[in-house]
Structure formats: C-alpha cells, structure tokens
Amino acid sequence: MSLKDVFASLKDFDPKKDKVGGNSALPAGKYYVSLSGVTHQAKNDREFVMFTFEVLDGDFAGRKENVFPSLELVTSTGKPMPDFVLERSIKTIMKIASVIGFEFDKRIFAGLEDDVTNVYEEIQQAFSSHLGKTLTLEIIESRNKKDPDHPYRNYDFYEAEQPTTPEAIEDPFADNPGSEEEIDESKIPF
C-alpha cells in the first residue's frame, strides 16, 4: 500500500477526538484466518481465555481479532452471570475446536463449579497443539442502544481447508557418489 493509499484510508480519522494508538476493529464480514494464540489471562481480578485469530489474506491480511469467551460464574458487579452468556461462551469454545478438527474434551467444563482457573488453563493447553490451524471467522455486528458508536460484536466459525505441506523434492544428486578427481587450485581463474 502506498503512502497515498494509507492516508486515504484515514478519511474518518478525527484528530480532535480520535486516539492515535490502537487498532481499529475489523469490519463485519468473513475472514480466512489462522488460530494464532490461545491464552489464559486476567485483568482487574477477572480471568478469561483469549483466542487470537490472524487474517491470512485480503485487504486485512496480518490483522488480528481477539475473542474472549468468559466462564466466570459472577459478573463484575457480583451478580450471577446470565446462563445465556455462559452457554454462548461454551458453544464458542466447542465450535472453534470442531472447525479446526479436534475433539474437545467436554469433561473440562465439569470443573467449572470448583475452579475456573483450572478450566482456563486446561482450555489453553488443549488448544496449544492446534495453533496455526485455519478456519473462517465471521464477525457479525448488531446495534448497541446504550453506545451506538460501539456495536455489539458476535462471532461464528466455519471449517476451512487446511494448507497442505509440500512433499520433499528428491535430491537429484543423491545417487551420484561424486568424483575422485582432485582439482588443482592454481588452475582456477579466481
């Protein structure tokens, strides 16, 4: 992309109110991505697992999208987490596993009542050997009545063809034992 193209892409940037840092979110749509990370993290005494997807092609190649399914049983205000939130989070984790081709051990969720930290750690470990797998990520935005400038972002995931590993090319000189002839270095012109 040329400097002119980059400048043109900033047409909606308002230097009086917009921040310089930070990445703008990927627009709604479908993206061919790879699972580039699964990490258990904590912020403000709240734990979560973060799935990171990297866009592999198109105008947004190299950009990343993070998805944060939460398995916390209480909200940040101390109220019980609504069942639909937990259901959506569990479905998200299971769907990601399914579309990248591995059978996720559902027994991991049996420990939710006891220790969510261990559940997050087990999820991170379960996905660690599947990093780099490809899938299609669909971002769906819906209206946020309380904050119209920040629509709700929902995700869905679909299978994608996994890249094939090229077969090793056979060495054309493998059967050649070489020459026994010695070369006199004084006859080499360089």
Describe it.
The chain has 190 residues and is an alpha+beta fold. It contains three helices and five strands. The protein has a domain at 33-162. It is 19% helix and 24% strand. Strand 1 (29-43) and strand 2 form a beta hairpin. The longest helix has 17 residues, at 83-99. The model has no long low-confidence stretch (mean pLDDT 87).
In one word, what is the shape? Answer: extended
What structural category characterises the helix and strand content?
alpha+beta
Largest sheet: 5 strands, antiparallel
Mean pLDDT score, rounded?
87
The run of helices and strands is: HEEEHHEE
- Measured on Cα atoms, how large is the radius of gyration? 25 Å
Protein name: Single-stranded DNA-binding protein
Organism: Lactobacillus mulieris
Layout: helices, strands, pairs:
Layout (H helix, E strand, L loop, with lengths): L2 H7 L19 E15 L2 E10 L8 E4 L15 H17 L16 H13 L5 E9 L9 E8 L31
Short description:
This is Single-stranded DNA-binding protein. The chain is of the alpha+beta class. Helices cover 19% and strands 24% of the residues.
Features:
190 residues, alpha+beta, five-stranded antiparallel sheet, 3 helices, 5 strands, extended, Single-stranded DNA-binding protein
